[in-house]
Design brief:
The structure is a single chain. By secondary structure, the protein is of the alpha+beta class. The chain has two domains: 95 residues, Alpha-Beta Plaits (2-Layer Sandwich), CATH 3.30.70; 149 residues, Pseudouridine synthase I, catalytic domain, C-terminal subdomain (Alpha-Beta Plaits). Helices cover 21% and strands 31% of the residues. The protein has five helices and ten strands; from the N terminus they run E-H-E-E-H-E-E-E-H-E-E-E-H-H-E. Strands 1, 2, 3, 4, 5, 6, 7, 8, 9 and 10 form a ten-stranded mixed β-sheet that branches. Helix 1 crosses helix 2 and helix 3 crosses helix 4. The radius of gyration is 19 Å and the shape is globular.
Length: 258
């Protein structure tokens, strides 16, 4: 099918019960649920979906996007209404807009923002599990904040790449990287104090943000030093880092398009 019309659909989801965005055999994914719902709404499968970001298992999205290709024009308002009526409660469409044939959801993605929500020092309430990681150890937050700033700028992040291909581009630019006290999300079952690891850039490799958070966690509990983090950037050909932060604390916050 050569689609004549395309639509940018911005949406959000809680990823806790999904095996990521991309369709995979024998598991529940966000893309599979979206495509199943579209098939139900359209009563056919003559469409194509292309995602802007392939989040991993249990990773959530405050705002992600996919492009929908169809042969016939659609009523954007009606489509949003029908999708939200038919999708499960952990997926919600925010906006539907028709885009020109020149629009490319991959190439026109200018910046992505992720955050990782965490606390430390005590066992967190079980209801927190989909949203944050609770580290039991005491962490030096001030030192972790200094370490996070080292990632800003243009660097070779080869040691933060999980199973890269021969074509993987390790040179990435981080526009913002910081750890701040959490004022984004609140709940009566959250710990009294929690923190956000926030990172913005044009694009990230698979597990890159979780590996960055993992090494900052090691820094906070005294297993590595600031000099070690500098070395991971200045000597990219050494071994890939092994400390991978759990997925459920990670969230895609926003995608900015050109």
């Amino acid at each position: 099918m050569k689609a004549k019309h395309s639509y940018l659909i911005k949406f959000q989801y809680l990823g806790f019960r999904y095996h990521g965005w991309q369709v995979q055999p024998n598991v529940k994914t966000v893309q599979k649920m979206v495509e199943r719902t579209l098939s139900f709404v359209f009563e056919h499968k003559e469409f194509k979906v292309l995602g802007a970001s392939r989040t991993d298992m249990m990773v959530s999205a405050h705002m992600s996007a996919f492009e929908l290709f169809v042969d016939e024009p659609l009523d954007a308002y009606y489509l949003k209404k029908r999708l939200n009526k038919s999708l499960p409660n952990d997926i919600r469409v925010l906006e539907v807009e028709e885009v020109s044939e020149k629009f490319n959801i991959i190439k026109d993605s200018k910046e992505k923002e992720y955050l990782y929500l965490f606390s430390y020092g005590e066992k967190i309430h079980p209801f927190c599990a989909p949203f944050m990681q609770g580290y039991l150890e005491n962490l030096d937050i001030e030192l972790m904040q200094r370490g996070a700033k080292l990632f800003e700028g243009i660097h070779n992040f080869q040691r933060y790449a999980y199973k890269p291909s021969e074509r993987t581009n390790f040179i990435r630019e981080i526009n913002l990287c910081e750890i701040v006290e959490n004022t984004v999300y609140t709940a009566n079952f959250f710990p009294e104090k929690s923190f956000v690891f926030r990172v913005k850039g044009s694009g990230f490799m698979r597990y890159q943000v979780r590996l960055m958070m993992g090494v900052l966690y090691q820094l906070g509990k005294g297993e590595v030093t600031i000099e070690f983090i500098k070395d991971t950037i200045e000597n990219p050909n050494a071994n890939t880092l092994k400390e991978l932060a759990p997925a459920s604390g990670l969230q895609l916050v926003q995608i900015t398009f050109l």
